[in-house]
Amino acid sequence: MCSRRREPARFTSTGPVRVTGWLTLAVALFALLFSLTRDAHAQGMAVPPGTQAELLARLAGFDRNFAARAGGKAVILLVAMPGNSESMRAALEMKAALGRQERVGDLPHEEQIVTHSSAEALVETVRAKRAAIVYFGPGFEKQIPALSSAFSSVNVLTVGANPAYVPGGIVLGFDLVSGRPKLLVHVLQARKQHVSFPASVLNLMKVYP
Amino acid sequence: MKQLKAAACLAIGCAFTLAGERVALADDISDVEGLLNEAIVSSASKQSEAASAAPGLSTSVTAEDLRKYGIRTLAEAIDFLVMGVSTSDNLGAGEVGARGVLLPGDRGSHFLVLLDGYVVNDPFRGGATFGVGAGIPLELIDHIEVIVGPGSVLYGSNAMFGLVNVVTKRAKDYEGARVIVESALPIGIRAAAGAGTTFTLFGLPGEIVTQLEYYKQDGPHFFFEEENTGVDQFTGQPGRHCRNCEQNGIWGGAVADDSLYAEAPSGVMRVALGDTELHVQASYYRHATPTGVGDFDDPDAGDTEKRVSVGLNHRLAVSTLLDVSARGYLSYYESETAFVASRGELCPFGLVTCNYVDEGKAHWIGLELQSTWDWFRDDSFVTIVGVDARQRHVETASDTLNIETGETLYPPSSGLDQSDVLIAGYAQQTWAVTRELQLGAGARIDSDPRFDPVVTPRVVGSVLPWEGGTLKASYSTAFRAPSQDETDNATARRIQAKNLEPEEVRSFDASIEHRFGAHRMLIGGFYSEWQNLVELAQLTDTEAIEAIRNGETAVPFTPGMQLTQYRNTTDVTNYGMNTGVEGSFRGGTIQYGFTLTGAIAEKRTSSGTSHLPAAPQIFGNARTAYVFGDNLPTVAFATHFMGPRPADLSNGQFSPDPYAPSQVQLRLTLSGDVPAVKGLSYRAIANYAVADRGPYVVGPVTRAIPTQPTAQLIPVDRFRTTVGLQYVF
Lengths: 209, 729
What we know:
With 209 residues, chain A is of the alpha/beta class.
């Protein structure tokens, strides 16, 4: 670092004029930014993807039906909302983060990014690819009821990055409370989707409904 | 047959054993617990990351910790729960230091304090309050991130010890309305009300959280020993230390009933709609302490601070590559300090009592734009580039008044009325080379019209050498730009500084951390060099006469008149170690934590090398809590300890140098829900301090004199109980 004292500047008190100028600039900038985001809003992920991946890799192994569901290899679908940058970025970051995990649920694994079109189409994709886990990043707030209904009889673990997804019917979710990751689980939906966690793990989670 | 039976029994036995083993393995949730206990911080790198990966030493204090361990202020959170940082109670706004360095009188200006990312340090002196005047309602706090180590690379001035970011709760964690009443019996009371809710507007999710709080304290009423100042050099008579009292040279010798108090209403509100957030904070803090060199126990002596800040930020995900955010902020601050003195050396106008009133007003308005580039869209190679520009305006005024009549006793100094513009740019690059190796580098350049631009770089690296382990090393720098009050202002008893330079610190840090299940252990070392530290130096009689001749002050000369000036006087070399362990057993039913910091700090001035006053060289804390569950209370025990500390006047002013003894504070807290009353909860706190003296010399005797050869150290509030109730509707 280097810093030398300068000669004192000639201060002029132009406080009110400059405040007005700054305020005008700030208001214009915010109006521009706000107008660009109204149709593309998606909440970012509170829990970093690396932490989500580590937790998911371990939690999958506690699901009593995971090994049977996955077969010899766990296929994880990462669903992105088309036209939503936040959602696509979350899928890419989770793919990379999961890729850094040696095993998921004590199984070799593979991640694929799929673009959402409809709940029914997604269910078909899950069945066709024999996916063991389906992960929803930001951007699915309005789709959760339809997804919850469509997955009701599908043998798959659904996971959401947004804590608001779980009360709506996604089985497992992540939240950040007091700077610590929290797990959320929808036990009724889990039962419908053949996901079964032992009591010791459920005790670590906030249980819905 | 017997063999078949034996084989069958063996097989069955093995099956049960294996089943039991599978159950045991399947139930081994300690890895998951450990991940859930790992703090996620966002302040160190301006992006969310695990604390173990973040640059510097990070501690994250949760809302549950604040409640469970009976924490009432930021200062207490630091003392009882944070590694590497400690506070010092001067019965006023308090002081804070880190890793063996504490700078008395700095008004907390060497820590950068943020509230939801907005700077709380005032625009007048850059100070921050960590006690009851912080203006942050306690129950609204979600967590507190404390990052120890120079942090100017992303935040600029003041982050020399590090930064404290107080994050408020989201509405989902603060739903409904609540009222809180808590009393530190019998001297203080805090009442608060808050609310939080979510809503939808224009198709976007929104939320609002707010809490208002009022705090009032009167006391403790300490007894202060007599100090005999002898003959006043101006009057030739024994000094007078209160209005309308005898000239007998005696200060103290009584209980201070009127001059130890605090009053602090405050409020915070946050409104979010989609990716836009509005933040408002307001606070008022009036406080006084009977420990200065002025009159004893005068109710009109004290400080008043008013603060309002507004911030608006918006984040936009432009593409999978790029995020941009814009943050506008406005902060207004006003302060008034009243110093009351009757003694002739301090009030050379006959038998009157002087009221030295110093006022300051400042505001800044600014805009910060930041872009985040995730080049490979996988969080492995991320660039952050930002600019921050603010306009600052400062006004000061000072008066010397006859406290009884209000008459001006001599012409006030002209004061400041000036504006300037501060511009900064910063950049940071992080690179996850492999899963095991992460590197980061960054720098910030700050432009201030009073100095040449200051550049503060940082380089960090972390390695995961084994499962659960992290090795980190870093080089980081920080600076503090002296305030305009320090560089350009003069008051009745302070002449203007000359050629004041920014303070600087460089630090090398290394640490090893290991996470095993629900437990975490850390050991680290540091070495720091501090330069150009600013101190309020007392002028010699010769310097005072020269200043009067040059017209730098209008105060008439009196022997021992105590004129002061801000100067870059001090360099400090500081090194040491931090260690800590924390974790939980039985699924979080039993929780524990322990930290210990040992540090050496040597102060170098033109007159030689000495120790740093008031700074502890060994300190730490320990805590444990048992969560019984159901309707039973949570029982928590916390302790904070410090080794002996030299007093603030311990460089030859007295012989021997006064030292405050080692201090241990013990705190027991019971908290929980009131049975059968839904929504009502309680906490009861008992605090006991072993030592009765702190490291500050009190009263008018600031060096040994024949009538008063020894120093009187500040008293400590030894025992206090606090009880509180909270009702959530």
